């Protein structure tokens, strides 16, 4: 098992770095993490590739100009809700500028979008956010572990195989499997927290 690898900075540290506007590396990481999430959500709302890219750029422009005026406040909504709301408003702006797009029913995309979830993020966003963060966290932490440790986690957590069966496949004691699984789960939990900013809340 890999015990000595240095773990990434905390979620609050990354956000503080992004807010400085002088840390290009932090901003690139931020865009790399959340760009695919915003893009995929736009595509699920029937924006084509080019329009989804445009909305993504606008979302990040809004984030870049507004982060400095936001403060942490645990009594208010979470980061995922804030990001979803910013994305929602940018999609609304897009449809307002493209009223020519009509459904066969005669309703505009904007009317349908707002009627489904007026002023609120919807279940699609929540599901997309959780799925994206989980998959990104898995991808990020995997290099932190040797192949055998990761395989133990993969078998017992992702594939839900019995511990004894995993121990037989890897030719180790079942207690080793429990320990390996626990170590990866802890890192996964930390990374999900880092990526989702779950302890960070925004106030304008």
Question: Which secondary structure elements does this structure contain, and how are they paired or packed?
Answer:
Blueprint: H1 11-19, H2 24-44, H3 49-66, E1 71-72, H4 79-96, H5 109-116, H6 123-141, H7 147-158, H8 163-170, H9 174-196, E2 202-203
Antiparallel strand pairs: 1-2
Helix pairs in contact: 1-2, 2-3, 2-6, 3-4, 4-5, 6-9, 7-8, 7-9, 8-9
Low-confidence stretches: 1-11, 102-106, 199-204
Number of helices: 9
As a whole number of angstroms, the C-alpha radius of gyration is: 21 Å
Question: What does the main sheet amount to?
Answer: 2 strands, antiparallel
Average pLDDT: 79
SSE order in H/E notation? HHHEHHHHHHE
Determine the fraction of residues in helical runs and give it as a percent range: 55-70%
Strand order of the largest sheet: 1-2
Q: Tell how many strands the DSSP assignment holds.
A: 2
What is the rounded distance between the termini? 44 Å
Q: Based on CA inertia axes, which overall geometry fits?
A: elongated
Instruction: Classify the secondary structure makeup into a structural class.
Output: mainly alpha
Q: β content, as a range?
A: under 5%
Seen as an oligomer or otherwise, the chain set is single chain
